[in-house]
Amino acid sequence: MKKDPVCNMMVDEKTAVTADCDGERYYFCSEGCRDKFLKERSCKLPRTSYDLIVIGGGPAGLTAAVYAATLKMEAFLIARDLGGQAIDSTKIENYMGFDFITGPELVEKFQYQLIHSHYIDHLLGDVEKIEPVHEGFNVVASDLNSYFAKTVILATGMTRRKLHVEGEERFQRKGVFYGNIQDLSFVQGADAAVIGGGNSAMQIVENLHTIAKSIYLISDSKLTADASIVERVSQFENLVKYERFKVVEFSGEDAVSEISIRKLAEEETVKLPIKGIFIAIGLQPNAALVSDLAELNERGEIVINSDCSTSCPGIFAAGDVTTAFGKRIVIASGEGAKAALAARQYILNLKKK
Ligand SMILES: Cc1cc2nc3c(=O)[nH]c(=O)nc-3n(C[C@H](O)[C@H](O)[C@H](O)COP(=O)(O)OP(=O)(O)OC[C@H]3O[C@@H](n4cnc5c(N)ncnc54)[C@H](O)[C@@H]3O)c2cc1C
Q: Ligand 1 in contact with 58 (CB < 6 A)?
């Protein structure tokens, strides 16, 4: 694998687009990145000023970026990864156009649109700071470069919440995992616990049901996942539900081997021997970049208006990081499209002034 010198993406040298310069061969994810490389090399000036910077490479950010490209905006995408949470979904049954598709397959299609069908400049990396400046914003990325844009779309999604119980840190990746993992063979024929009551937790139960002996589904409330998936997993003979139970402690020697739980408002703890624990108790919005610039609600989500604008003129937000109702791929994508349209309108209005 080789690193694209423009966007930092790892590319397969057998299939990558290449350019030979000064006796050296360079590998690119797309013709767009190769053209950018050759242009910036000939004028010795990397591009750092745009109309729009989109931050985040999940469904919201990728859709906003593709829309910006189709709207012929001077746009730049900066994202830690291309895919976001959607890549963790093993079974997407609620995205229009597909009866069933896996997260990685859908994300591959999104990426193809971004890189090949509607190329826009992109960089794989973290954004560390957004600073308001005259007529726009400076966006400081982890490559320590600062990029200027007249408007910004924040589509930074959410990251997994922790339980904060005894043993959680100690047994991380020693039997304790967050969300779905690819290789579940370590719980083959053994008992496993899934903690959470939403769709992500149910997906893990589905993945475990032909592998684990017993699955303990532990939730501190009634299950909140979509009714269809709850109905399906409830039929699994190896599923034992512990609704309205609180996790007290994880214990074990080198790896986790027991979980202690307690029914809400009761004293007595129940100890369950297990080999794996999968925590899926929700996510927290990644809104820190704008916490001093735009209004957040009590859950830490960015408060948006119906056009994805925020309380800070010029900053738009889309997807799971916002107050938009429904944390779903199709909703995040729709919101990303809306934010791109609104950002374009904002720029047109700036030009009129
Ligand atoms: C296990 C699992 C299964 C799911 N299954 C389904 C399903 O079947 N159907 C469904 O509709 N939804 C499902 N979801 C929910 C769905 O994935 C999310 O609603 C959707 O991905 C939200 O998209 P987003 O673009 O708003 O945010 P995210 O997908 O969270 O993407 C955020 C992006 O921002 C990037 N980022 C964050 N901070 C920075 C920074 N400082 N600098 C640069 N980049 C940054 C991240 O790396 C990521 O690329 C599932 C979620 C999970 C976790």
A: yes
Mean confidence (pLDDT) of the chain: 94
Residue 101 maps to which CATH number? 3.50.50.60
60 CB near ligand 1 (under 6 Å): yes
Residue 308, burial from CB neighbour count under 10 angstroms (0-12, 13-18, 19+): buried
**pLDDT-derived band at 318, boundaries 50, 70, 90:** very high
CA of 84 to the centre of ligand 1 (A): 4
Establish whether residue 157 lines the binding site of ligand 1, counting it when its CB lies within 6 angstroms of any ligand atom.
yes
To test the pocket of ligand 1, the residue of 123, 156, 182 to mutate (highest count of ligand atoms within 8 Å of its CB) is 156
Do 151 and 343 touch, CB atoms closer than 8 A? yes
The answer, yes or no, to whether residue 144 has pLDDT greater than 90, is: no
> For the whole model, what pTM was predicted?
0.82
Is residue 260 assigned to a domain?
A: yes
Give the pLDDT score at 248: 97
Q: Cα of 327 to ligand 1 centre, how many Å?
A: 9
115 shares a domain with 211: no
Residue 77 structural domain: 47-159+284-352
Report pLDDT digits (tens) over 65-105: 999 999 999 999 999 999 998 887 778 888 999 999 999 99
Collapsing DSSP to helix, strand or coil, 63 comes out as helix
Count of domains observed in the chain: 2
Q: What is the 295 CA–ligand 1 centroid distance (Å)?
A: 21
The 10 Å CB-count burial string (b at 16+, else e) for 329-350 is bebbbbbbbbbbbbbbebbeee
Q: Whose CA is nearest to atom 47 of ligand 1?
A: 80
**Residue 8, in any domain of the structure:** no
Pocket lining: 106 vs ligand 1, CB cutoff 6 Å: no
Confirm whether 13 is domain-assigned.
no
- Residue 274's pLDDT is 97
Q: Which pLDDT score, from 0 to 100, does residue 349 have?
A: 94
In angstroms, rounded to a whole number, what is the distance separating the alpha carbons of residues 136 and 149? 6
